[in-house]
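Weekly structure sync - notes
Attendees: PM, LS, DV (DV joined late)
Agenda: review two folding runs queued last week.

Item 1: First target. Sequence and structure tokens pasted below for the record.
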Amino acid sequence: MADTTARHSAQKRMAVPLGAFVAGAVVALLVGVFSKVHDPTLDGTTTLGFKDVRDMKVAVSTVIGVLAVGQVVGALWLYGKLGIRAPSWLGMAHRASGSIALLLAVFVGYHCIWAFGFQTGTVHGYEVPVRGIVHEVLACAVFGAVVVKVVAVRSKRAPGWFLPVAGGLLFALLIVVVLTSAGWYLDAKGWPSR
């Protein structure tokens, strides 16, 4: 009897991560489909004073990458993995910087979809590189991973491994997306001009 109850409890606890991953996959797929069928304008709604939307996205994406690294350090510190006692303000700073990173990611994602869409093959006489396609696919996955992470943070019934896995997945995806866009651009062309 106890074995059946424990198994049933474990299955209920697995429903939260499984549901979150399904919801995240649906969000990523919908973002990708919309990006593919949307007719890109090749221009964003703002450049924040940079020469063009691409330069603006590089600058903001670099900030997102820095915030993402800060999120991992903050999480490790909060959970006692750095061997240094976390200050009382760190939890609030961690949540605030995570919210800022999310808002900036939505801002950049919106401009990516609006200006460029999901491009494959040859576009305007330019062959879309594999790096660009990887960037597009993983950028869509970032928004699905955000859904998974929000569920992991808010759920009281999820297994203990779910939050670190969700956070690690979001961090890994964000870093690869930043490296395949801003990282590549900074290496090839340097800091964008204003």
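Item 2: Second target, run right after the first with the same settings.
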Amino acid sequence: MTADFITQATLALGDREGEKAMSMRRIAAELGCDPMAIYRHFPNRAALLDAVADSVVDEVPVPGEGGPWDERIRVVLTGMRAVALRHPGIAGHIASRPPLGPRGRRVARELFVALAEAGLAPGDVVRAFQALIAYAAAGLRMAVDAGVQDRRWQQVSAAMEGLPGEALPVVGSAEQFDYGLRLLLSGIRLEGERAAG
């Protein structure tokens, strides 16, 4: 039994049965082994889920250099959100602990390169990256927790009646995420222009 085999079996279990099924005992039962066999590869559940989260990053489209910097960022972050939501067992973990394994670091490098192309100073590249990751994580968490027009959405909609705008977007929806990301990218563009003088 290899670490990769355990990671893929855990991902498949989460895809089928959701986040609550991904306990060490349940994963061991799925693999037909003692939980201690898993601990030989992963020191704890968080480390295993980190590996699972990093494994799904392979599915995120990474456009590479060549296109406009803002479009590349948009493709990566909307791709990460879509990939995480395709894997319901690990989506919440990705929202709370963005992947830092080799695949996650590869995607982070792409974002850093794109932000540098926006004209930001090196320190602002780091701050903008942190803002984008925080936004993406919060948007994913909202999508995991809500994402539908439920009773609470109806209550909030009713409370906002008479305010500007038509329909209230669903909390955690792709529409809401895309709008907020557009605002962030516009702000980054302005910061880059200001830095260029």
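Discussion on item 2: The longest helix spans residues 122-145.
Action: LS to circulate a short write-up before next sync.
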